[in-house]
Each structure stands twice: as C-alpha cells, then as structure tokens.
Amino acid sequence: MRKDYNLEKRKYVVGGFVVVIALIFIVRLFTLQVAEDKYKVFAENNAFLRKIQYPSRGLIYDRNGELVVFNQPAYDIMMIPRDMKGVDTLDFCKTIGITREQFDNRIAEMKRQPGYSVYTPQRFMSHLSASDYGRLQEKLYRYPGFYTQKRILRQYNYKTAANILGNIREVNQNDIDNDDYYSPGDYTGDLGVEKSYEPYLRGEKGVEILMRDAYGRIQGRYEDGSMDIAPHSGRNLTLSLDIKLQQYAESLMVNKIGAVVAIEPKTGEILCMVSSPTYDPTLLIGRERGKNYQMLAANEDRPLFDRALMGAYPPGSTFKPGQALILLQEGIIDLNTAYPCYHGYINGGLKVGCHGHGSPIPVKPALQTSCNAFFCWGFKNLVDKRSKYGSSANAFEVWKNHLVQLGYGYKLGVDIPNEGRGFIPNAKFYNKFYGEGHWSANTIISVSIGQGEILATPLQMANLCATIANRGHFITPHAVKAIEDTIMPSGLLDVRTPDIEHRWFEAVAEGMRMAVTGGTCRTANLPDIQVAGKTGTAQNPHGKDHSAFIGFAPYEDPQIAVAVYVENGGFGATYGVPIGSLIIERYLNGEISPARKYIETNMLNANTLGNRVIKLKPKQ
Question: Measured over all CA atoms, what is the biggest interatomic distance in the chain, rounded to whole angstroms?
C-alpha cells in the first residue's frame, strides 16, 4: 500500500499542538500555585482576617522617676472594601458623626493610597473618640466590612519639654520604603527622643488571625489563637531631664526669645533644655494634629524651631574662657601676662571698645571684668606670630582646631535630631574672602571676642561651661539617661578630652569665679553656693543686643552647668545672669531664697519681645 505522507505530517502537527497546549497549562499552573501568590492571598483573605495587634509604645520618665509621657487607648475604623455590602451609609455616618460627603471623600482618598486593595484592610478613620467608639461598637454588626482597630495615643503629664520629647505622626512613603516594619497607617516618632529612640520605643507588632465563613462573617479565632503572635511593648526611657526644672526654666523664658541649656558636667546628662517660645505638646496629638502643626509652623516666632539645638548665635563674651584656654595652652600668655586697655583695643587705627577697669590687666581679672582689649591683644599675638606658625593662616588653623576640640564648629552628637553645628571659619574661608596672605589678626579681630563670623549653639555654650567645670573634659550631652533592659548607644558616654592642660582649665575657672564674686556676674553670687560664670553681650544688627551667660556650681564639685541666651535682652547681666542663677539655685536648693524672690518675680514678668526688629513682608 502506498504511504500517505500528508497524513503522517498532520499527525506530527497535531501532536506538537497538544504538547504546546500541555506546556502552557503546566506553566500557568506553576505560576498560579508556586510563582505567584496573588490568588493564594485572595483565598486566604476569603477564609481569614488578619488583625494587626499594635504594641504599647514605651513610656517616658524623667530622671527622678516622674512619668512624663504615657499611652491612652485610641481606635481606628478599618474596612475591607470588598466586604462592604449592604451597608446603610447614612446610618453609619450618623453613628460616627460625619457627613455623607466626608464619607465619600474618605473612600476616594483611600483609593489613592499606594498599595490599596479591595481585599485587604484599609484605614477609614483614625483616633475615634470614646463616645463615638461606644456607639459604633453597639451597631457594628450592621456594617459588614467594618471593624475597629485598637491603637495608642500619646498623653502628657506635663505640658512642657515639647522640643525634647517630640511627638508621633503617621508614616509617609519614605518611612515605609526605608523600614519594612512600617505599613500605611502606622505611626512613627517625629522630632525629639520620640524620633531618635524610635526603634526602642515602638515595640514589635503582633497579629490575630480570625476565621470567616462563606459569607465573610467572623467565626472565631483560627485554631483557638495558637497561630496568633502577641505584640511586644516598646522599651521605657528614663530621661536625664528634671521635668520640674524644665518647667521652671520655661516659665522664666515666657515672653522672651532664646534658649536655656543645663547639663550635669560629670555625666553629660541634660537637666533642662528650653527653646523659647515653646508650645504645648498635646497640640500634636489626635485628629487636630495636622491643623495645629500648620498653626505652629505659621507662627512668626517659630516655636517649632529648636533654638537650644539649632540656633546659631554670636556667643559674645561667653567665648572668652575658651579664648583664654587657647592662649595659655599655646604659650602666647601666662598667668602674669598683662595687656593694656585704654577703654578698648587700639592698634593701627583700629579700635574695639571696652568699659572702664584697671589697666594693664592679666587673664584672670580680664575674665572677671570681661576685658575686650585683653583678648584682642592675645588673639593678635597668636595669629600674627609668624616666627612660631609661619603665617597667619597657619596660626589661625591652630586656633580653630583648639576650638573644635572644645566643642565648637561641629555637631556634638546629642541624641536629639536636627542639631546645628554653629560656625567657626577656617583659613580657607578668609583666603577666599580677602585673598591669600592679605589678611591678619586685625582684619578679623572681632572673632577674638565671639563676634564677627563666630556662631555657636546654646548647647555648645553649655558644653564649654561643663568642660571648664570638669577642668578639662566633657561627655557628649544627651537627653536619655537609660533605656529599659538595654545598654545606651555606643559612644554616647565616651569621655572627650581637648588637648589643653588641666592647669589652664583651673585658672580659667578661677577667673570665672572672680567674675561672680566681684565682676560682671555679681547677681549670680549666692550666699550658700559657690558659682562661677561669664557674661556675654552679643552685638546684634537687627535690634537690641543679645544677653548671654554661662555658669556652673558648686565651684569645687560642679553638679550643674548652664547657658542662657536671650535674644534682644541687652547686657548679659540684665537677663542672662539672673535667669541662669535662678536655675542653678532652684536645681541645687529646690527653691529660691526669700532674699532673691524679687529677682525671680522680675524675670517671670519680664518681656523682651518689644526689643525685636520685625521684618515686614512685602505687599503682594
């Protein structure tokens, strides 16, 4: 019989077609069952409801065990859009106190969120009030697809220290992208220790798995809860802060713009840190958070700007103790070197004014009287000493490097976010401005007394004072004293020692003590506490001069170092010294003596806001 080759070819074609179809089915089945979990998720969502269990956030205490920040239950309304069938939306809106328009807007906004799915829980409303929650729970069975999710809301025992504590806010997409802990609708620390210690405070989430029936109704816990994961609470923090001292310092700064920082010198622990004007931390919790934040952001006095950490101010004469240390260490002066002061520094047609006192004058009395001329002459003899340094630029770099070791010009590394660095120029800065080799000490003489280009934060000023109080070392200032069941972050408690001899710190401390007993800081001379201090009056082209003070006590066994900066306050002795001395006395004695109550009253009632020059916005 003759072979039919066409039929033979057809057999192979049909066979090949069958094989291709089989391969397609196999690949698709593999994709559905192994490679792609979308349908598995859909199936599981039909059978189970996974409710996230949010942990209790860590509590925050002050150094004396006072509870400062705690948690209060709050509730979110969650919904699974696919299950929302047959809901009487008007009745639902009436129950939770919103309009139908608000309901529709929330649904529309929800659909615009990244990761939106009709199969997964979506947050419909946050921070339900207790009364609304109670009404909703009674009628929740009427609203299929809706359920409540327990959250926590931060509460405050003291309406103070907002700049240190920070707050919590809803996460944004950047938070979610950078940390897989977060999901849309979660909360995270925002500013203050709430932000910097977020990994410790937030705890670990749990999950509760509930079973559904064919109609989506909850039938109970899956396997009697054996597969549930319990949440773990966040760790509690103990602040270095003395919350009562913080309250007191804030009260002294009412109607003033500026900052106060107090440090325990031996430990670097921040005892109080005030940025004024401040705000009530309870404004940034709950449903009104967004509106209140915008209100604070629009305030022309910038209460959200942390002046203690971020304010860059000319330190004025509070800079002089650091200058004295550098001049002594570099051998430019000794304790007997005296410079003339003819009501100021006069050299080459240049004059920097000074008030009346004896002349010539050595370093300790120069600190006592805050002599401008002494520190101008010392700076000139350092920067222009080419026989030792080769050039003014080289000498200036030596000077600047000492200041950096003393904590100026760079961030100290405090455990609160958004620290500023101030500004200490280097030789390149002046080479660029004046030309290399075309400047000398007289060109930039104002920096010798903490003016000109010199800028420092109040935290840096307080840290210098703590370094002198310790007679030559400091520990990075920090606001958290302890973390529950955890050691403190590495490096935070390291001792940092500038390259200046102990004996020079002792000499500068003696000069600061003399300033209190018989110099520019007499108001800080307490009968039962030996205080050492230094005033500062910083020139200000935009209004009245700024008033500054640094001081520590007791002299032989320092327990507190404080810096005060009052914008437009005038002389350092007008506001800086009295406020600083009141804080020292209140911390060490627990009260203000009757003989000094008038000083306290004056400071509590003083108002420096009228001394500002307010820049008017141009008309549109």
Answer: 137
φ/ψ of 272, rounded to 5, equals -155, 150
User: How far is Cα 61 from Cα 177, in angstroms, rounded to an integer?
Assistant: 32
Which residues, 6 or more positions from 493, have their beta carbon under 8 angstroms from its beta carbon? 267, 268, 475, 476, 478
What pLDDT digit, counting tens, does each position of 141-172 carry? 888 888 888 888 899 999 999 999 999 988 88
Query: Rounded to whole angstroms, how far apart are CA atoms 218 and 210?
Result: 7
Contact assessment for residue 247 and residue 273, using Cβ atoms and an 8 Å cutoff: no
Cα 485 to chain centroid, rounded? 24
Distance between CA 449 and CA 352 in Å, rounded?
Answer: 10
Q: 302 near 441, Cβ under 8 Å?
A: no
Q: Model confidence over 512-529: pLDDT tens digits?
A: 999 999 999 999 999 999
CA pair distance 2, 12, nearest whole angstrom: 19
Residue 17 identity = F
Beta bridge partners of 229: 207
Give, as one character, the DSSP assignment of residue 532. E
pTM for this entry: 0.86
d(CA 25, CA 27): 6
| Residue 32 near residue 39, CB atoms below 8 Å | yes
Q: What is the b/e burial string over 275-302, where b = at least 16 CB atoms within 10 angstroms of the residue's CB?
A: bbbbbebebbbbeebeebbeebeeeeee
C-alpha distance from residue 535 to each of 25, 27, 310, 562, 597 (Å): 85, 81, 21, 12, 22
φ, ψ dihedrals at 259, nearest 5°:
-155, 155
Least confident of 319-328, 423-432, 487-496: 487-496
Give me the residue label for tokens 């328009």. 101
Task: State which amino acid sits at residue 242.
Answer: D
CA gap 287, 332 in Å, rounded: 62
Which residue matches tokens 């947050």?
A: 123
Residue 301 has pLDDT above 80, yes or no: yes
Helical H segments across 35-99, by residue range: 38-47, 89-96
- DSSP designation for 115: T
pLDDT digit string (tens) for 195-254? 999 999 999 988 877 776 655 555 566 666 667 788 899 999 999 999 999 999 999 999
The rounded distance, in Å, linking the Cα atoms of 477 and 269 is 6
As a whole number, mean pLDDT of residues 429-439 equals 92
Distance CA 521, CA 306 (A): 27
Name the residue with tokens 């404080």. 562
With a cut of 50, say whether residue 38 has pLDDT above it. Answer: no
Side chain identity at residue 325, one-letter code: L
Residue 177 CA to residue 423 CA, distance in Å, equals 34
CA 134, CA 96: separation in Å to the nearest integer?
Answer: 10
Structure tokens at 468: 């002198």
- Tokens encoding 526: 């307490």
Nearest to 397 by CA among 405, 468, 619, 225: 405
Determine the Cα–Cα distance for residues 461 and 465; give it in Å rounded to an integer: 6
Q: Which spans in 204-257 are helix H?
A: 243-252
Q: Is 426 exposed, middle or buried (0-12, 13-18, 19+ CB in 10 A)?
A: middle
| Residue 139 pLDDT greater than 80, yes or no | yes
The closest of 54, 279, 22 to 161, measured between CA atoms, is: 279
How confident is the model at residue 599, as a pLDDT?
96
Residues in the chain: 620
Burial class (CB in 10 A: 0-12, 13-18, 19+), 612: middle
Q: Compute the chain's Rg from CA coordinates.
A: 33
